[in-house]
Structure formats: C-alpha cells, structure tokens
Amino acid sequence: MTRDEETLSERIRALHARIAYMCLEPGKGIDTMRMVQIYSGMVCELLLEYELPGEMMASFMGDMAKALRLEDGEIVIEEMAFPPIYVLDKEIEFGRSFAREITFDNWDDVHDGLKTLSNLIVHDFNLWEEVTLDKKESYALFHECLRFALAFEFAAQDICDMLIEEKIGKESWSLGDCISGLSAIAGYQAGLGQKRKPPHRDPISEIDEIIFILTQEATRLGVPGGKDWRAGLAANDMPINPPMELIDGALPLCMKYAAFIDVSCDMHIAALVAKACGRMIAVAAGGDFPEIEPAIAKPLAMMALTESHRYQEDKKFGSEYR
C-alpha cells in the first residue's frame, strides 16, 4: 500500500469512527439502522463518480456478499422495516455529505475508497451479528437503502429533465407549471400513502414528511430558507382547488419512471417527485438572477402540494366543501 493509499484509508476510518460515535445511543449501543442509512449515502456518493453507477453498485454488493460469506437466496425486507421516508432521505444525504469530505485525486482513489468502506461495513455487519442484527438482514437493509439512495438522485435529475423536454419543450409549460405539477403529484401520492398507512406507523403525517424532503432539497441547492414557504396558503375552510390539469399532464411520466426504477410504494414515489420538485425550484429560483423569485416559487409549490393532499383527504373522509 502506497503512502497516499494509507492516508486515504486513515481518513475514511476516521470518518467511520465519527459516524459510529454519532450513532451511539446511551445505554443501548449503536443505532445500527441509522448507520446502515448513512453508509448507503456514503457509498452512493462514491458510486456516482462512475459513468455507470448501477453496474458498479451490483459489483460492490457482490463483493460484499462474498466477503460476508452469504449463501444464495434473496431476503425480502418488509416496507415496515424501513424508517419513515423523510428520515431515510435525511440520513442518506448526511452520509453523502460525509463522503464529500474525502478528496479524490483520480479514479484509483475512488476505487480504493470504496474498497476501504466495504471492508469497514463488512466488519460492522459481522460485529453486529454477535450482538443484535443478523448479517443477512444487515446486508439486505443496506442493499435496499443504497438502491433508494441512487434512485433519489437519478429521479431528482431525470424527472426534471423529462418535464423540461416533454412539457416545456413540446407543450409550452412554464417553469412555474412544472413546479406546481411536481409538487401537486407529491401531495397527491402522499395522500394515497396516508390512506394505506398502518395504524402503528410513525405519528408524523405524510404531508409533513414530503414537505420536509421538498424543502430540504431546494435549500441544499441554494434556495434561500425562511418562513415564506407557506405564505398565502388557503385556509382549511376554503374550497379545495388542486391543479388537476397539471397532475393529469405530469403524473403518467412520473409513474412510468417510478415503474422503470422499480419503486411502487406511494410514499416513496411521493418522495422521489418531491426531490425532483425541490431541484426544479432551485433551477427556477436559485442564483443571483432567478427566473422566478423564491418568495413566489416556494409558496407556489406549497399551495399545489397541500391542495392536492387535501383533495385525497376529501376523497377518503368526505367533506362539506365540495
């Protein structure tokens, strides 16, 4: 091992120690689920350095399976085994930010970084098996979290590109239409998720989960923060007015893309679309000379999202405001 490789390995191991300390719960030990999510974000960030991240992911997971000496046979992870989608997104992005602290001078550094990270993850999975979590289950959870991490990034970019090409380029939609359409679909799908929500699920409402994902994505990409996201929203006693024309126009594209990347859960689809919307807001309202002022773009998105969610609630519970 060269001196540069040793330095890179030491930096990754130092990050690993920091993450383990952050995931330590007094009296309970390591929060393994949180570490799995952060690991998936770190690996995702490195895989995105490659031209074909999906193929590299398959190779990475195959090497991990061999190192863990796992037998053939897929382990099915139930949806309820995962944390709420906004937590998953937050921890994945946290892991990605950790990975960005590592400086890579060439492709060999990225490869070496993945190898070191793989060794650390395998070590932890074997260690956890002695205490709490079977290594097969750890591997399966990590695989799904990593798949979601890549799906989040691909979807955020690809859905924006599809709307720009298909709706703006061919149907003369504006950026405001795209923002409203995407946020409305996110609220619409979140409403479907709420209808199917198990009674023991996290008490945070689906609409708040999706709002968190959308606003955090926009803020990460430079949209100014503040309290003006909800400026001018309609009161609850106002007639429900979702932008159904925009939903009908963009929903087929989003659903087709979700099926393509094998995402079927309503809340997961809502999260993917919310991230795409956050990125679209950053395109329209970011920079020194925004096409749409942030003070307009942010409540525009929030209005469409909340109205579409109210529409789904109205269909479920009924309302006097029809």
Keywords:
322 residues; mainly alpha; two-stranded antiparallel sheet; 11 helices; 2 strands; 1% strand
User: What spatial order of strands do you see in the largest sheet?
Assistant: 1-2
Shape: globular
The count of strands amounts to 2
Hey, roughly how much beta strand do the residues contain?
A: under 5%
Tally of individual domains: 2
Order of helices and strands: HEEHHHHHHHHHH
Low-confidence stretches: none
The number of distinct helices, counting runs of at least 4 residues, comes to 11
Largest sheet: 2 strands, antiparallel
The residue-averaged pLDDT reads 85
Output the structural class: mainly alpha
Residues in helices, as a percent range? 55-70%
End-to-end Cα distance, whole Å, is 70 Å
Tell me the Rg in angstroms: 21 Å
Summarize the structure in words.
It is built from eleven helices and two strands, in the order αββαααααααααα. The chain has 322 residues and is mostly helical. It folds into two domains: 3-152, no CATH class; 173-317, no CATH class. The termini are far apart. The mean pLDDT is 85.
Task: Give the structure's gist in a few sentences.
Strands 1-2 form a two-stranded antiparallel sheet. The chain has helices spanning 3-22, 32-47, 53-68, 85-99, 107-129, 135-171, 175-195, 206-220, 244-260, 266-285, 294-317; strands spanning 24-25, 29-30.
